[in-house]
């Protein structure tokens, strides 16, 4: 036994490093889900999915991010940015749908990545989902402050500084109202908030009515001269605008979480997905056309673009109605964002990848109080320290990274058999990693005079990988439920599109995400890798086998 102890330590060390690619067993994930949830009632139709999808998607993004896209990146051509963003969402949604019907477990992209690509990738997405949820609350709160300021403008009053913010320097503007909104929503969540279909329906109706009111009334006052030039920043600006307004599609991936409750997922899920995208994109295109037609793109207000457009044409009553409708929608969006993030921490803590404190749930309210308070404090700090543009860019990166990993996961699972084994010496994750790296280089090189010399060979390599995986690799496992079409072509195109959009964001946002990931890596390698549920299971197996 004395001689076996170093061997035990060595074997445990090896298994800890192997945990970077160790995958959570699908069977165990499904068993845990069955133990935690009752059987789902398959009662939803395509109409139900569309209703839920529109409610989850249409809202905060179009109210707070469209102004920046129109003024600084795409001009009136922002409508094309919305179309391209919708295309990226459609591809990723098909991949989400295949995952959610084959592996109907909670955790969304985090759980999918853990099952398909391994522990480190799963943790990476779980950590960066913070960029979609917690930071989304910060961005929406900043937008809330901007529209609240518009309410004062309606009455020709100047908003006090506790609303407009105290300018510390040319970069930092401390707006106390933004963290105040987050704190109020956090307190509400601590006492427990149960889902209410009537509440969700009411907020959805407010969102859509506010947007339709702006489109219909604003269309009467459109000046066609404001659409010339239509693409003031060229097509490069359209793609940059696409990355800026991607915030407007945050929440779209929640549509696919209903797959286990759909009557006929093969038929209704695609209809629901496409229907949601058509409605949301149509509303967004309408808003961008009217907004850039009422106000010249260089004069679009960045803080409250919709309400300020009516103020510019002396329709203050209309600006007031839009502002009030927007404030209602943004408050609900802040609440929902703060509601989602602690649940991601909760799932990661249950798997041992995050601190145990985040897995604690209050027995009375069934709320993860510590995770909720932590999320509220974190979101409040970001709402103070970063501006709306910086926040929305980070949200877009977090969402697109999740989309990219889900697309990659679909390809990997298709090339593995039912036992999770891929019968090739060089396995698909290697090709996917190479594809992602090449796509990143392709996106980074755009806009330079010498870029064509790099992008052409990159494009050839990308096509070569697609052709190889399509025609020279046999799929081992094809789902019997919903199937993403044209695998691996569609998921690979999704990886390319998502990566390209990310690379169009400003370099400062990419640096922030890199720093955020590095910070999380310290937590993972210092805590998660040692306390992972799978790591403990394998440690026990190693110890038992050696002791025998």
UniProtKB/TrEMBL annotation:
GO annotation, cellular component aspect: plasma membrane
Keywords associated with the record: Membrane, Transmembrane, Transmembrane helix
Predominant location category: membrane
Cationic amino acid transporter C-terminal domain ranges (all copies): 482-532
A molecular function (GO) term: amino acid transmembrane transporter activity
Subcellular localization: Membrane
Membrane-traversing stretches: 49-70, 76-96, 108-126, 171-192, 199-221, 233-252, 273-297, 317-340, 367-388, 394-414, 426-444, 450-472, 484-503, 509-527
Family annotation (InterPro entries): AA/rel_permease1, CAT_C
Pfam family, one: AA_permease_C
Membrane topology: Multi-pass membrane protein
Protein's UniProt name: Putative cationic amino acid transporter
Top-level taxonomy: Eukaryota, Amoebozoa, Evosea, Eumycetozoa, Dictyostelia
